[in-house]
Amino acid sequence: MLANAPLDASTAKISCRGLWKIFGPLDASHVTEARSVDAALQRIAETDAIAGVAGVDLDIREGEVFTLMGLSGSGKSTLLRCLAGLIEPSVGTLEYDGQDLIHMGRGALRTLRRNKTSMVFQNFALLPNRTVLGNIELPLEIQGLDKARRRARALEMIELVGLAGRESHYPSELSGGQQQRVGIARSLTTDPELWFLDEPFSALDPLIRRQMQDELLRLQAQLRKTVVFVTHDFDEAVKISDRIAIMRNGRIEQCDTAINIIANPANDYIREFVSDVDWTRVVTVGDVTAPGPAEGVATTIPAGTTLRDAARNLLDSNGPWAVTDDAGRTTGVLTRQALSGALERSVAQQTPERGRAYA
């Protein structure tokens, strides 16, 4: 799927068409009467306005982790805030489960945001005068939930994110990773359907960041939220995402799975953007395994294992390995020869002359 190519809006959890966010003087006709996004951008530039989001068409599936990424100023955080209802788009349509968000009344919008959406910020945004328990209870307190029920729910979330025993600690007494766990727990207390995370791990040390990525994957496997995640780190996007949208100048240059983006870049910008990506961190065992039975094969390996991680099996075993899906079902067999060949092809792909398909 290439730039701005939508899925089926009728089955999308979040859907937008022709979405713009323009900062500065705006006449809607600059966009609505333009023949193309490029023409609209030219007319906007002539007014000294700036397009933070420019003509985005997007459908996000229920239960997927969808990542917006790009360089600083690409528009990824602005688009996230539009999708989350934190800022109002200038032009276009935006729907949640078929509900028109842009023309929704203030009261209905406030109710939707309180009950169906939640957000995690880069800077944690914890209240320093509240304990861990007090911070996590806050959304339920705002909703007017009684003390006993919100306390029970907050304690459940504390247990979920691994902070049991720190209920009475204040933010200043916690590490950065622990503070972000509080932010994550707080965002989940209302059991939101839509979970927005704006570079939540970028301020953390590398080791803690990897641990928090693993924590997010664990929570998502358990909760199955619809997640919109913002990052500037392609490795992070690869690790956590079902699909990735790469943005530039407010536009989506390409939207697809990680493997399809690096194997089939939509244009020269994307090709340059992913030129230094280590393919062995992106290509998975499932990408290179042919389907088939695995009678008599005792050792298993998850289909989502990257080639980089799978390569360690070469040191311990000659194979073969039964490849399993998320439900533990066998989907094929991976031989030592096939794994070695996939690793060699991944290395070969990391050249300017690489092919446009992984085979």
UniProtKB/TrEMBL annotation:
**Keyword Nucleotide-binding attached:** yes
Tagged with keyword Nucleotide-binding: yes
**For this chain's UniProt record, which GO biological process terms are given?**
quaternary ammonium group transport
Q: Which Pfam families match?
A: ABC_tran (PF00005)
Show where the ABC transporter domain sits. 34-274
Q: Which UniProt keywords apply?
A: ATP-binding, Nucleotide-binding, Transport
Q: Which InterPro entries would you find in this protein's record? A: AAA+_ATPase (IPR003593), ABC_osmolyte_uptake_ATP-bind (IPR051921), ABC_transporter-like_ATP-bd (IPR003439), ABC_transporter-like_CS (IPR017871), CBS_dom_sf (IPR046342), P-loop_NTPase (IPR027417)
For molecular function, the Gene Ontology terms on record are: ATP binding; ATP hydrolysis activity
Which PANTHER family does the record match to this protein? Answer: GLYCINE BETAINE/PROLINE BETAINE TRANSPORT SYSTEM ATP-BINDING PROTEIN PROV (PTHR43869), GLYCINE BETAINE_PROLINE BETAINE TRANSPORT SYSTEM ATP-BINDING PROTEIN PROV (PTHR43869:SF1)
Name-wise, this protein is ABC transporter ATP-binding protein
